[in-house]
Protein: Potassium efflux system protein
Organism: Gilliamella bombicola
Amino acid sequence: MWMRGVFCFVAVLFSSMTFAEESTPIINNEDDLSQIVHQLSDKNDELRQNMELQKNHLTSIVNEQNNITTQISHVQNTLATLDEQGEWLSFSTALGETLRQQLLRLPEKPKSQALDAEIAEEKAQQLNYNNILISLDDYPILTSPLNTLKEATQYRRLLREQTELLKTLISGSDTTILELTKLKIANKQLTNAIDEVNDAAHRYFFWVADVNPISLSYPLDLAKDVIYVIFSIDTLSQLYNASIEVLSAPKPLFLIILSLLFVFTHFKMRTKYNTFLTKSANRVGKVTQDSYSLTLKVVICSLIMALPVPILWAVFGYALQINWDYPVAYALGYGVNAAAPILWVFIISAHFASSNGLFISHFGWSERSVRSAMKYYQLSIWLVIPLVMIVMSFDEYNNRQFAATIGRTAFIFLCFALVFMTNAIHRAGVPLYIDKKGSGDNLLSHILWFILLSAPWLAIIAACLGYLSTAQVLLGRLEASVIIWFALLVIYFMIRRWMWIQKRRIEFERTKQRRLERMQRAKSQEEDINSLNDSVDEPVIDLDAISAQSLHLVRSIIMMIALISMILLWSELHSAFAFMNNIKLWGTSAIVNGTEIEQYITLGAVCIAILVMTITVQLVKNLPALLELGILQHLDLTPGTGYAISTVSKYIILMIGCMIAFSFIGIDWSKIQWLIAALGVGLGFGLQEIFANFISGLIILFEKPVRIGDTVTIRDLTGNITKINTRAITIVDWDRKEIVMPNKAFITEQLVNWSLSDSITRIVLTIPATIDADSELVIKLLLQASDECEYVLKDPEPQVYLVDIQEGIQLFELRVFAAEMGHRMQLRSTIHQLILDAYRCHNLTLPFPPLQTNLEALGRKSGRRSYTVGTL
């Protein structure tokens, strides 16, 4: 056996050696060898060139690293200078100008995307070198009899040389990747340093005057700068040359032509657009023709029709901005681009405010008020837009050379224009906040209008005193906030119109159904149904009364969106308000790493705590509606489960929000946990009933023995449950009185829930008859009365029994079923009337006046066994 194994091993070894010899190519003639040697030589020359390029690239990377290091040092020195001189900025305008010049000389932020692409390319090249190195093993072997010694030696030398070159290149790629990574880290450090300087500059310069206050020499300086701009810097010549270059460049010329086509199409479509608005306005308010899609179409068409002119405006700005050789053209392009979004907003407002537009026809706003609000529309187009262009252009031109004169004058005129526009809108009665009653006449709206009306005047005063940049930034943020606020107001009225249309349709269908029923009862089919549609024109519906909860939800959601938008919009100015962190209110101690240190609560921390509590309160108030609208309605949950989830979520959010807010003012959990524990023990003894009701409320929410709308009997009280709170449950009895019952009673006492799993209830009526009456006839009459009663269910079917004979009286028991608790009394009344009618028709008499037999009285009189109603 072992001899056979050795033989097999030798055979396998021999076959593998033979296969290896067959798989390795062999050079059989000298021509092939010369060709391969020539290829190797060319490849080695290429690798040497790559090695030289790699060395040069590595040198450039190292030089770039040194340059970045120098820039980081320069930025850090600038930051140190700002920190040292920042407190003196308010005393010297010249110092501020000097520091601003240093900020203008800061390097630009490096782009990390290019380095990432370069690293990826270097790694790919390294992988390629590895593949070439591995492929060297596949080169053919030499056969000594067929090759000369010189060519064989050259062949082997070239292979060794290529191997060394590849290894060197692979090692160089490793070094290059390492240096590129170091350069990327240095770029990140430079970016962080520049961000720190910008934050510090924003913090120090925002509340510092950036120009000199207006003095008696200001008109003369203004005139000199205007003359200098027009004649000395060759403004018209620069604009002319820039226009020539724009018309000769293919890309901006194509964009301008395309924008002009859009504008031409816009003017061609205006007639169709106006016709569409007229048709839509004629359909609004008619029940059978009005639809919410009309409003959506009007909004979309108005936005599209307002686009072409601002697009052309923005294209002109872009075309001017690409001309870096002409500073005037570049600055003007910057101003044109800044004014394009404002122009779009003005044109949209004009479309919405047209006689057949969104505001008047669809929202039902007063045409007189809308016309009053748009009184200065021409002023906004022909004055505000040019002023915005001038302000932004001179803010960009030549390090704000003329911002203190021409730019400030244009900004003051712009503020005066905003004063006229804002007063016109305010006199028109446009609300800034709508309360629960749907009215814009409330305290918050008055406060917002006061801020909005005062802002332009404050900006004028600040600009005259030299705080030009501060006034521009704050006024710009405020106007952007107003635009967002008005956009959300339009969205609110759009949602309100959708709800109004839905209510009108429901009321119309109900009215039409009632009319049809009356027509069927009267057997009058002469009137056409179409005439009915015309007769039911405008059912009056008080939307705020019917849909108060829905509108409150909409208002809450919009308020949350507005609050978040304001936070995001003003978040860029957080460093400008860093001075509030220097206003210390009180001190507190904190333990950090086992060491107790003194901390101070600042005005900024208090403001943040107030903001956190405001957001928390809004979330707690609106969380049930938000959960129901966004999540719970899409889940297969019972009403009690959804209510339990909403309630528990409210308490969790309230607890988290309070802890976060308290932590900002120095009240953290570590300091109050013992107080809370002591209060918990004290309250556990003193307020144990309240805690018992609270825990019982949680049990009720999750176990759901009762639900809102259930009919229950507890103690001697029967009624419908209308509210389930964490402490008590509100029950409305049949007299419409509201009774507040503690939750503990529903857990510890006997409770009858008439509609927990099934709303069907049984009613047992005891009907007497004389002893000589035909019992079969009486049973038949009782069954007939139950069949004729509309409130009696057919399934389960009614039942009649002769249950007892007492004192010469037959006692029959009629057992019927009602669909819900609200039908019980109506069923009793109706079936009693039917039974009385049946007795009269068949000459049957009742043995005594009461319809319901008092069996307990009969039992006491006769001494016989009394019969309990409803038993067998």
Remarks:
- The two ends are 99 Å apart (CA to CA).
- The domain at 761-862 is CATH 3.30.70.100 (Alpha-Beta Plaits).
- Residues 149-205 form the longest helix (57 residues).
- The beta strands are 584-592, 595-602, 711-714, 717-724, 728-733, 738-742, 751-753, 761-770, 799-806, 809-818.
